[in-house]
Design brief:
Blueprint: H1 2-9, H2 13-30, H3 37-48, H4 55-65, H5 68-73, H6 76-79, H7 87-108, H8 117-128, E1 135-141, E2 147-155, H9 165-174, E3 179-185, H10 195-209, E4 214-221, E5 226-228
Parallel strand pairs: 3-4
Antiparallel strand pairs: 1-2, 1-3, 4-5
Helix pairs in contact: 2-3, 3-4, 7-8, 9-10
């Protein structure tokens, strides 16, 4: 197996060029959905590693982190633990992730967030799904439900984030927000709300209601799926 990997890494330039162009042509013709995760990652790696067969590395990254999005979302220090990933390669991967997050945010900025649920979920997933620790974010909305600000309030451990309802409401008042959407991730991958999640949400709802601030939803982002408190009947 080691010899096969070595042979693959030492393919002649004309073979590498042919493979790269064939893969690019498949992408141009049929788009990302026609490619496996490792093939899409190969396309990303082509620029960072121009003189080597990157298929084995792409497959190793996918196997290590679990998928294309998970690879982009991995911390740089974890990426560089994989043999063949230099600081420059890790930076390129993080640039791609940052671009995806920025594109997602721009799809919801100045739009009615509540009526753009698909774009909102896509944005939250790109920003949070693959973080190794919990992060609690708040989307602050104006009277027309347009996004005023998106802020990460707290970062925690792999299974807990300290959240202070008073600070949440204080920030909403500072921004003159009429409503908020709470979002946090579950690094375990399972978005099922915990008892702590539910209790904390109810505290925020109670504090917000007293000041005429509406809590539209609390989204929990897992690796592949998400949970909505409103859809689960936990918010009325």
């Amino acid at each position: 197996m080691a010899e096969r990997a070595k042979e693959s890494a030492e393919l002649p330039p004309n073979h590498r060029a042919g493979h790269r162009e064939r893969l690019r042509e498949r992408f141009r013709r049929a788009g990302a959905d026609a490619l496996n995760d490792y093939e899409l990652l190969e396309l990303v790696l082509f620029r960072a590693i121009p003189r080597r067969d990157v298929k084995p590395l792409a497959k190793e990254l996918i196997a290590t982190f679990g998928g294309f999005a998970e690879t982009l979302g991995a911390p740089p220090e974890r990426l560089t633990e994989v043999k063949g990933v230099s600081d420059a390669v890790a930076t390129d991967l993080k640039i791609i992730q940052a671009a995806a997050v920025k594109m997602g945010r721009e799809r919801i900025i100045n739009r009615r967030v509540v009526s753009s649920a698909g774009d909102l979920i896509a944005y939250c997933r790109a920003a949070m799904a693959d973080r190794p620790t919990e992060e609690f974010r708040i989307l602050f909305l104006d009277r027309k439900n347009k996004l005023i600000a998106d802020e990460a309030q707290q970062q925690g451990t792999v299974d807990h984030t300290p959240v202070y309802p008073r600070e949440v409401i204080k920030r909403a008042l500072e921004l003159h927000a009429s409503s908020i959407i709470l979002v946090h991730n579950h690094p375990s991958g399972d978005p099922t709300p915990s008892r702590g999640d539910i209790a904390m949400t109810m505290e925020i709802v109670k504090a917000a209601k007293a000041l005429n601030i509406n809590v539209h939803d609390h989204l929990i982002i897992g690796h592949k799926t998400e949970a909505s408190f409103r859809q689960l009947g936990l918010l009325s």
